[in-house]
Amino acid sequence: MKTLKKVDLRDKRVLLRADLDVPLDERGDIKDDSRLKFAIPTIKFILEKGAKLLVIMGHIDRPEGKVVDKLRMDRVAVRLMKLIGKNVYKLDDCVGKAIPRGEKIILLENLRFHAEEEANDERFAQSLASYGDVYVNNAFGTCHRAHASTHAITKFIPGCIGLQVEEELKHLDMSKMRKPIVALIGGAKLKTKIPLIQEMLAKADKVLLGGAMIFTFYFAQGLEIGKSLNDSNYAMNAKLMLNNEKLLLPKDIVIADYEDQQAGIRTVAFNKIPKKSIGLDIGKKSVEDFKLELRKANTIIWNGPMGYYEKPLFNKATNELAKMISELDCNKIIGGGDTADAINKLDLAHKFTFISSGGGAALELLAGKELVALKALEENEINFG
Fold first, then answer.
1. pLDDT given at position 385
2. Alpha-carbon gap, residue 273 to 223, rounded angstroms
3. Are 303 and 363 in contact (CB under 8 A)?
């Protein structure tokens, strides 16, 4: 796959698809600009290599094809100017607008104000492609989606991957990771994690499970799980995976009363969950068991929190494991999403080898799936020579 470093950008109009989907507060102000910072090396590289124009496009949230004032790109333009140290001119739409003379960096309006973006509409993609001579996909977090700005657009403009996507592919390539590999997988819904768990059971040396999805594994064994989350439709998947000796489930659970989760908080054995209680974190013994396995690793892959980490009462296991892993001398990979959020809240990001910028895309890549946007980029490369 062609990378940005191998493309001649001199005097070219460069169309950059970046991940600009920053979280906003109630007023529409940016709460965390990490994703914008991920884009800066690619932006600076393009400018340093002599591009005559840089047009940046992206989206915020899910406006479902409608203009939502709070989700306009104005604040993103201001923050990018601060991060780049150069003027960024923002257009009030993403198609059908002329580029003002004399401007070097242009930011298009939120792509998802047009329903055609998520519909992967080719005419819309062609309109976007008209802004550039070279297309750069640096939005790793959307590479698992077939959208107009990442998929259909590859038919109309020669393209390559940006520096961030290149880093993601390098660090998430399991064939190049040092063994033994220990996977720590958490999160709420088993349905979304089955492909990842199965891939890890095949390629990793140990797979440690936490998060609410563990209760489906207990349910599959005929155990009482009270009011805990249960993807019962996937109990058979869980039962089959239980036969793999690489799999390690928690031995104790932090529970609370289902009706009042501030009450009845205590730790019980995994097979002693009361009917009217809900499991919300893994217990101390399980954390120690996990630490024992993690210390053996040359590579740790972590995707998903161990409990209901958004609530301080139930973030102890996630936080304790994060602190412990951060001190280990090994390759430490964070698979984006909630796990990255937990690491950032603890100000530990600098102690990890790599933190992915795209939770869903990282999940699919680690699960052994092809990312559709990158596949399209590769397939259409031949059209442009």
1. 56
2. 9
3. yes
Do you know the residue count of the chain? 385
Count structural domains, the chain: 2
Catalytic residues: 35, 189, 337, 360
Residue 273 corresponds to which tokens in the numbers above?
Answer: 């969950």
Regarding whether 57 and 204 lie in a shared domain, the answer is: no
CA angle 244, 144, 240 (to 5 degrees): 15
Q: Which residue has the tokens 């496009």?
A: 57
Is residue 376, in this structure, part of any structural domain at all?
Answer: no
Sign of CA dihedral 23, 24, 29, 31: negative
Residue with tokens 């709460």: 31
Q: What is the mean pLDDT of residues 135-147?
A: 97
263 and 181 in a common domain: yes
Query: What does the angle CA 74 – CA 79 – CA 81 come to, to the nearest 5 degrees?
Result: 95
Q: What's CA 221's distance to the chain center, in Å?
A: 32
DSSP class per residue in 106-145: EE---GGGSHHHHTT-HHHHHHHHTT-SEEEE--GGGTTS
One domain for residues 204 and 149: no
Report pLDDT digits (tens) over 150-203. Answer: 999 999 999 999 999 999 999 999 999 999 999 999 999 999 999 999 999 999
What is the distance between the alpha carbons of residues 35 and 76, in angstroms, rounded to a whole number? Answer: 11
Q: How confident is the model at residue 341 (pLDDT cuts 50, 70, 90)?
A: confident
As a whole number, mean pLDDT of residues 37-61 equals: 97
Residue with tokens 């609410």: 212
pLDDT above 90 for 381:
no
List the domain range (segments joined by +) for residue 334: 172-366
Kindly state the tokens that stand for 195. Answer: 């492909």
* Rama region for 50: left / alpha / beta (φ>0; ψ in -120 to 50; rest): left
Q: Render pLDDT for 6-19 as a digit per residue (tens, 0 to 9).
A: 999 999 999 999 99
